[in-house]
Specification:
The complex is a heterodimer of chains A (240) and B (320).
Chain A lengths: L6 E12 L2 E12 L3 E5 L6 H9 L4 E8 L2 E2 L5 H8 E4 L11 H6 L14 H7 L1 H4 L11 H14 L4 E5 L7 H16 L3 E5 L3 H7 L2 E6 L2 E6 L1 H5 L2 H8 L2
Parallel strand pairs in A: 3-8, 3-9, 6-7, 7-8
Antiparallel strand pairs in A: 1-2, 1-4, 4-5, 9-10
Chain B lengths: L5 H23 L3 H25 L8 H20 L8 H23 L4 H21 L9 E2 L5 E2 L2 E2 L3 H24 L1 H11 L1 H6 L4 H27 L1 E2 L6 H14 L6 H19 L4 H14 L3 H11 L1
Antiparallel strand pairs in B: 1-4, 2-3
Helix pairs in contact in B: 1-2, 1-6, 2-6, 2-9, 2-10, 2-11, 3-4, 3-5, 3-9, 4-9, 6-7, 6-9, 7-9, 10-11, 10-13
């Protein structure tokens, strides 16, 4: 970690799973403010479980998860979210029966506790397509618009760390590019970002570091260029 | 729903017609209809409250009539005390209705605190069980007539009048129903309502956005219980009589039917539902005493053909 990225989210020895099944094992990971980390790995290697463990929605979780220095491991999910983690979950999961404005506004968190809080206007400036559809029901949005809404909704909780699980899954390439641009902008604004994705190309341009999960363990860590120099690692852990 | 949809135009026309109905029934000498429409509006009020949790919040309570019972018995007990004292402050509707509402709210907080830890079919079972407990409590209350129930010794007073008068009760009920509908609109458009409606589709997601959903759902459950208690207090005055049957599960089921038939999760659904249920019951029961044989299939057809209930029928027709 570079000195100009004070740690925002730090996982130390985090294990988790469901019932008797352990999915992730001793994960160590640190993300600083303004840093973009990508978790890679094939399907079923524990990427989503890692995210769910951080949010307290996995079955069980052990270890230490520090958010801005405070322990959040084992806390109730809504407390973790209130403490400053914004989640853009797999499959988007916007509220279909709420309007765009309601999806954003109903979950806005304590604006007066933040120096530069996210407002609907600020979200619409970042995501202009949403501004045109304020009164539309969530279910009437296109896939790309729903994804933007999911990102906007997470931002309205004024997170310190933004976690995106497969944020560009199933989207048209142009929309995907747009989302990468938005994330680059958020990174520049100093947000710590943890992304799970499969598209190594655009991720390489955005990510400060990669972590590769294999069978629940973090088996490789490095920068995108370091990974580029190691085709064997790519073939072993990411190749299809 | 905004007040400009076809369903809401029909509903507002219906409310205006309801406001005028006692005048016409008095002119026609048919005061029975004032009695019947009062009952319909009280059930609509109970339906509005159930709609908050069942329709908007996907909390299918099958014990909601228990709160009707609490409201009604609260009035009965206060009316007994007031009759012993030959009137006094305990006799007025301004005291009786709020206390009945509060009693139901407290019961709803206790019942909700337990029930809302469960989901789906378990929630149905546990609310059903609580409803039946309240029913059994009514049966066990010998001083209040036990299984047979009791006639109110005196009605809730309202200044010089009391709620035994058909038109006075009628307009009190209509006023409270309009207030409840307006409140329902405001509530469900508020951030609180957005959380309740959001919890219907995805609770985990709400938690991940920092919302303690349990507390929100409990607040909605308590509010629904409170307003249903108010409906119960009015129902006691409407019939001049309370009995454990008010809290019976069949009565809870009738409220569920009102919400589903009218259109769950729509603002005016419970109003249409109550009108349809009370109206059909009245019409069909004149044709045959086995009127439920006809009523059942009608309910199934409406719900199957259009999952938005009667409110949905208006929408479907305008979309064509």
């Amino acid at each position: 970690m570079k000195a100009d990225h004070p740690p925002m989210l730090e996982l130390a020895g985090v294990s988790g799973g469901y019932g008797k099944t352990q999915i992730i094992d001793q994960i160590d990971l640190s993300i600083g403010a303004g840093e973009f980390i990508s978790l890679l790995g094939r399907n079923g290697m524990g990427k989503t479980t890692t995210v769910r463990a951080i949010m307290g929605i996995a079955g069980w979780v052990h270890g230490s998860i520090l958010l801005n220095g405070s322990e959040i491991c084992g806390a109730p999910t809504h407390i973790i979210a209130q403490s400053g983690i914004g989640l853009v979950a797999e499959g988007r999961r916007i509220f279909p029966n709420l309007t765009v404005a309601e999806n954003l506004d109903a979950f806005a968190a304590n604006p007066h506790h933040h120096t530069n809080p996210w407002t609907m206007d600020r979200v619409f400036a970042l995501l202009p397509t949403l501004g045109d559809r304020v009164k539309s029901m969530g279910e009437t949005l296109s896939g790309g618009e729903q994804q933007m809404l999911a990102i906007g909704r997470a931002l309205m909780t004024n997170p310190k760390v933004l976690i995106l699980d497969e944020a560009t899954e199933g989207l048209a390439p142009t929309v995907r590019t747009l989302i990468w641009q938005i994330l680059a902008e958020l990174k520049d604004q100093g947000l710590a970002i943890l992304a799970i994705d499969k598209h190594l190309g655009p991720l390489g341009a955005l990510s400060d570091r990669y972590g590769i999960l294999h069978k629940g363990r973090l088996v490789w860590r490095g920068t995108p260029s370091e990974l580029g120099d190691q085709p064997k690692v790519i073939a072993k852990y990411l190749g299809v | 729903m905004t007040p400009t949809t076809p369903a809401s135009r029909w509903a507002i026309a219906l409310l205006i017609a309801l406001a005028a109905a006692p005048v016409f029934s008095a002119l026609a000498g048919q005061t029975f209809y004032v009695f019947l429409l009062s009952k319909m509006m009280i059930l609509a009020l109970a339906g509005v409250s159930l709609n908050w949790i069942l329709g908007y919040g996907n909390m299918p309570s099958f014990g909601h009539a228990g709160f009707l019972g609490i409201g009604a018995y609260s009035v009965a007990i206060m009316s007994m005390r007031a009759a012993e004292a030959q009137g006094g402050w305990l006799a007025t509707a301004f005291v009786q209705l709020p206390i009945a509402t509060l009693a139901a709210a407290i019961a709803a907080i206790i019942i909700g605190a337990v029930s809302l830890r469960t989901r789906g079919v378990y929630f149905i079972m546990i609310t059903l069980a609580f409803g039946q407990m309240l029913f059994s409590l009514g049966v066990a209350l010998e001083p209040l007539g036990g299984d047979d129930g009791m006639t109110l010794p005196m009605y809730s007073t309202l200044g010089p009048a009391d709620l035994s008068s058909g038109p006075v009760l009628y307009y009190v009920v209509l006023g409270l129903l309009v207030l409840a509908l307006a409140g329902s609109h405001r509530l469900m458009q508020s951030p609180f309502g957005a959380v309740i409606r959001g919890a219907k589709s995805n609770e985990t997601r709400l938690e991940a956005l920092g919302v303690p959903t349990y507390r929100y759902r409990l607040a909605a459950f308590a509010l629904a219980g409170a307003v249903c208690g108010l409906a119960g207090a009015l129902l006691a005055n409407q019939g001049g009589y309370v009995s454990p049957a008010l809290a019976a599960w069949t009565h809870s089921a009738e409220l569920v039917v009102i919400v589903l038939l009218g259109g769950a999760g729509t603002l005016f659904g419970p109003l249409f539902g109550a009108l349809a249920v009370v109206g059909l019951e009245e019409i069909l029961s004149q044709l045959t005493e086995h009127w439920r044989i006809i009523f059942g299939p009608i309910l199934i057809l409406v719900v199957l053909a259009n999952r938005g209930g009667i409110s949905g029928l208006f929408r479907a027709r305008t979309n064509v």
